[in-house]
Amino acid sequence: MRHLLEPTNLTVEEIDQIMERAIDIIDHRELYAEACKGKKLATLFYEPSTRTRLSFTAAMMELGGNVLGFSDANSSSVSKGETIADTIRVVSCFADIVAMRHPKEGAPLIAKRFSRMPVINAGDGGHNHPTQTLTDMLTIRRELGHFDNLTIGLCGDLKYGRTVHSLIKAMSRYKGTRFVLISPRELQLPSYMVDEMRKSGIPYKEVNSIEEAMPELDVLYMTRVQQERFADKAEYERLKLAFVLDEEKMGYAKEKMIVLHPLPRVGEITEGVDNDPRAAYFRQVENGKFVRMSLIYTLLKWRDQEDNIKERTLVSNEGKRCSNPHCITTKEPLAQEFYVDDKGVKRCNYCDHEI
Ligand code: NCD
User: Fold this and answer.
1) 54-61 — which CB contacts under 8 Å span 24+ positions?
2) Which of 32, 107, 132, 213 has a 20 to 30 Å separation from 293 between CA atoms?
3) Among 50, 55, 129, which residue has the most ligand 1 atoms within 8 Å of its CB, making it the best to mutate?
4) Ligand 1 atom closest to residue 262's alpha carbon, by position in its atom list
5) Is 52 one of the catalytic residues?
6) Cα(274) to centroid of ligand 1, in Å?
7) pLDDT > 90: what percent of the chain?
């Protein structure tokens, strides 16, 4: 069966199919009202969420299916110390598909190994968030009409912002994509993401202000500084409003550009921007439900297809452990797994951090 742990688990053609299906769902809602009748979606949310969990729930309900799960790990057996492997084995007896969010990076990879249902990663730590990317892409598609030759500004927390990492992976595969990075030095992209862009030959540059980037952007992707990933709260306070989009800065933008934000926002876009027709972030939320309907429908249809997520060739850990405090291996009793990337750098198989 097929899983979605990160956007590149889908080919460009498959992403196209999911977009087409989402648009078909928007145009013919009634045809899908019973498309998943009798099927159950489990939502396992080990980390707080409003939008994503409700969006998955609404999506399955609109497909005529049912939803079960938990929104707080403390109210489940997880609080008794159950491993992800065991939880997913158990939930496989009750549901047909699972959407899982976990604060530790790499958690969905373990779930996938033990699951008898398609696993959808609904966010793992600061690592990936592929269904947000599908949401972002459906919005780009509906607002701008295409994915080619786009200059995309990524602003805010590029270090811990999992939505940014997944968006880069997905959009790097289209012709003419360029990225403009706008973040405080402390919140720059992790090195494995910079390598990802270099590997795909994607042009990118770093600038120091939104104003400087604005005139050339087709998409401005704003993000929240991810408070929950900071060890040092004073540092969060210092950086949280380093870049704020306001009406004056919108004045530098092209007439046909869009502002996206995965939400929640906590001050990085002033409310005055909401009335600008280029502010697409609330339309983006609704697209999230449609694209999740399309994804659930498609993954259930592909149930009998072979898993296309190739396990990497692992190399000896020489007694080392992953040093990323946000990695799942720090929480669960897992064997350390390392791989070597294209540049010869040794990385953790779960969270991709350099060892
Ligand atoms: C994002 C997330 O959870 O990573 N939110 C979401 O899924 N809509 C972004 C964020 O929390 O900042």
Assistant:
1) 55/285, 55/288, 55/289, 55/292, 56/99, 56/120, 56/122, 56/131, 56/292, 56/296, 58/289, 59/289, 59/290, 59/292, 59/293, 59/296, 60/36, 60/293, 60/296
2) 107
3) 129
4) 8
5) yes
6) 19
7) 86
Q: Is 51 a catalytic residue?
A: yes
107-140 confidence digits (pLDDT tens): 999 999 999 999 999 999 999 999 999 999 999 9
Q: Is the pLDDT of residue 290 over 80?
A: yes
Atom 3 of ligand 1: nearest residue by CA position? 123
For 224-283, what is each residue's pLDDT tens digit? 999 999 999 999 999 999 999 999 999 999 999 999 999 999 999 999 999 999 999 999
**Distance of CA 328 from the midpoint of ligand 1 (Å):** 19
Given 3, 21, 52, 223, the catalytic residue: 52
